[in-house]
Amino acid sequence: MNWLTKQARKKGKQRFLNHLSFAEVENLVQERAGRLYPYVKDETRVALYARNSVETVLFFLALQGLQKEVFMINIRLTEDEIRRKLTNLKIGVVFSEDQTFISFQDVLNQPLERQDEGRGGYAPEQIAVIMDTSATHGVAKSVPLRWRNLEAHVRASQQVLGVREEDNWLLVLPLYHIGGLAIVLRSLYNGTAVTLTAGFDEEETLKLIEEEKVNLLSLVPTMLHRILDRIRGHSLRAVLVSGEFIPEALVAASLRKGIPIYKSYGMTETASQATTFCVSEHPMKLKSVGYPLPGIKVHIHNPDREEVGEIILRGPMVMDGYLSEEPIQEFLHTQDIGYLDEDGYLFILDRRDNIIISGGENIYPQEIENILYAHPAVSECAIVAMKDKKWGQVPALFIVSALEDEEIRNYLSARIARYKHPKKILHLRELPKNSTGKLLKKALGEMVNED
């Protein structure tokens, strides 16, 4: 029996997806599966042009009932990028809400067709979904997640975050990103509601929070930064914040406002969270990204004398390997650099790609960025490596702020060693980000190192 059938029998008329109940969603999904069957009966792998909508979720669940591998297409990709992806993944059947591919409406106009007996279950080894990594540091890779990976994640998340009958998770992240899809799967598994929006709209998000219509929320730091000062009242019990870098100043400001921040660390390869914790319950661990979820093992690979090294992960929610690449060997190598404290909490110093080696000294950009974010006049900032003939690399600062360069240098001079100071400061109106709000440091590095 799949999760939807189970919840439809158990919860019935209880609300699940926006205005739809569990029973209504199951009926609509079964109907769509019947109409989809003629299109996909000879296909192992298909794709969804994954715009945030109720219909996209219904089609995703229907395709899962038909036991198809579903590639979730990033709607911000160009036509050429999508074409290359579909060719590489050998996908010939694609569905979309509009007329970009086979439209949902065209499918709904088809007659119902009887499906093969025995379909509808979620087989543990079945690849459920294929998603691209965030590609903040290079070319995106395709991650296949099996139902056993997804079930391990939702079980572990349930143990850490708990479940309440009134839970209603606001979904503003993209469905083609694991952070967005995981909200649907957690809510389905837990038998609770999810409020899906077309994307992150500040006014809509604030209205839903302040009218106490939602009590769970997942955001990347840039999204939280944009609304935090404007939140007046709420009934939030957990705000899951994850992303490339979570400024300490943002977390501290959230705690002062009584926002129940859960810092989290994870990736597509781990089916979302790998570590998390409620910061208000463990304020002394504010700089940490959390404690491993049940089932996750975190090790530090090749640690130095200070026990700092590459973070590697193992657990039932971790993928087997990227498509068209060799399976991972025991542990997933994250390319992130950090350490574990005596209580097992994980601390991240930076991405290996981001570390600046200047005259033999390691400079961790996140350390400098955290200091800058503590200044009230700094909206956004990023430190990247800039080539230097004498030192090999030196820090360069991209910043969104009205501060003058001299003010920035004076502020840093009392707080960090001289060799960590940025040798170049560039002011921008906004830092470049991907569709989920993660900073594109690769683009900044290319900008500052142009010949």
Automatic annotation (TrEMBL):
Its EC number is 6.2.1.26. GO terms for molecular function: ATP binding; medium-chain fatty acid-CoA ligase activity; o-succinylbenzoate-CoA ligase activity. It comes from the Bacteria. Keywords: ATP-binding, Ligase, Menaquinone biosynthesis, Nucleotide-binding. GO terms for biological process: fatty acid metabolic process; menaquinone biosynthetic process. InterPro entries: AMP-bd_C, AMP-bd_C_sf, AMP-dep_synth/lig_dom, ANL_N_sf, MenE. Pfam families: AMP-binding, AMP-binding_C. Pathway: Quinol/quinone metabolism; menaquinone biosynthesis; Quinol/quinone metabolism; 1,4-dihydroxy-2-naphthoate biosynthesis; 1,4-dihydroxy-2-naphthoate from chorismate: step 5/7. Residues 367-438 form the AMP-binding enzyme C-terminal domain. SUPFAM superfamilies: Acetyl-CoA synthetase-like. The keyword Nucleotide-binding applies. It catalyses: 2-succinylbenzoate + ATP + CoA = 2-succinylbenzoyl-CoA + AMP + diphosphate. Residues 8-323 form the AMP-dependent synthetase/ligase domain. Converts 2-succinylbenzoate (OSB) to 2-succinylbenzoyl-CoA (OSB-CoA). Belongs to the ATP-dependent AMP-binding enzyme family. MenE subfamily. This is 2-succinylbenzoate--CoA ligase. It comes from Desulfitobacterium dehalogenans (strain ATCC 51507 / DSM 9161 / JW/IU-DC1).
